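Below sits my pick:
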Amino acid sequence: MKKEIIPTTKAPVPVGPYSNVVKYGNMLFISGMASEDAKTGEILHGSVTEQTENIMKNIKAILEDVGSSMGMVLKCSIHMTRPEYFSEMNQVYASYFNEADGYPARVTTFGSEIYDGLDVEIDVIAGIEA
């Protein structure tokens, strides 16, 4: 198998030497997404609810753009600045998944320093139909 860099217009342009989406076999690896406008790259500050909503909306759009879906998400890694924000983030996060598809595996870490003073960053591993 060979890794492929998958282009998408649904994610902000990377600000460093990384790719937004890498495909390996029938697996997709989506880089950490922070609260940004996917078209302009503008940082979207706001509450943890607003940040998480924007991140999850962008992840959903990316997955759909590259031929996958939220139902194909296998694992999420969530990085947050403070544990007090967990409940607020989790409420939005949960609205993007359903029990019928099976919830993805997940890890959540706290104490992260996230780009431009944001409070949440999420990266995803998902499947894609071969």
About this structure: The chain has a mean pLDDT of 96. Residues 48-65 form the longest helix (18 residues). The CA atoms of residues 10 and 49 lie 21 Å apart. Helices lie at 48-65, 86-94.
